[in-house]
Design brief:
The protein is an alpha/beta fold and 198 residues long. The protein has a single domain, classed as Rossmann fold (3-Layer(aba) Sandwich). It is 57% helix and 12% strand. A five-stranded parallel β-sheet has the order 2-1-3-4-5, sandwiched between helices. Strand 3, helix 5 and strand 4 form a beta-alpha-beta unit. Helix 4 packs parallel to helix 5.
């Protein structure tokens, strides 16, 4: 019984990834193009998310600043979830819903990218960060699920929405991680050409 429950997680995750591939391949490609152009022009990528999505945005920033699968120069990416003094000061003095938007206002510049992760698309702190990014003439790559929520409504035609076609948070996060790896690989290939083993 326990074994079957475990197997069902694997099967559901695998099936979703196969089904989502056809839907998400194009927006992931668009996200890679957007990030490639920003990085090529000397801009940076800021990333934000809550809970598991916070871990995902830190994972993304680590892959760019460190490396993904090849040796290369570090790329400028910053997870807005890592400075506890900034986050707790903003949450205490203002409101938790501003913990990312104030950092976007401080660090974001026109031409930068905001990678915004919210499985529901409704997280107020993420919605506020996206609004702050758009006000600063930044572009947004939003990773969501469950139909996209509020984020779907505020993104512009110049932004990219990668919405996992599922309602279960764990499954959405699993596809978000695969998406992050696709973006890291695509950025490396666009900037440096070829494959990691070439």
């Amino acid at each position: 019984m326990k074994n079957q429950r475990i197997l069902s997680h694997f099967h559901e995750s695998a099936e979703l990834k196969i089904q989502a591939a056809a839907v998400l391949a194009r927006p992931i490609e668009q996200a890679i193009e957007l990030m490639f152009h920003a990085l090529s022009n000397g801009n940076k990528i800021l990333a934000c998310g809550n809970g598991g999505s916070a871990a995902d945005c830190q994972h993304f920033a680590a892959e760019l600043v460190g490396r993904f699968e090849r040796e290369r120069l570090p790329l400028p990416a910053l997870a807005l979830t890592t400075d506890t003094s900034i986050m707790t000061a903003i949450a205490n003095d203002y409101n938790f819903n501003e913990v990312f938007s104030k950092q976007v206002q401080a660090f974001g510049q026109a031409g930068d990218i905001l990678l915004a992760l919210s499985t529901s698309g409704n997280s107020a702190s993420i919605v506020n960060a996206v609004n702050a990014a758009l006000e600063r003439d930044m572009r947004v790559v939003a990773l969501t699920g469950k139909g996209g929520g509020e984020l779907k409504k505020i993104l512009t035609d110049a932004d990219v929405h990668i919405c996992v076609p599922h309602d279960r948070t764990a499954r959405i996060q699993e596809v978000h991680l695969l998406t992050i790896h696709c973006m890291c690989d695509g950025i490396d290939a666009a900037l440096f050409g070829g494959d990691a083993d070439d």
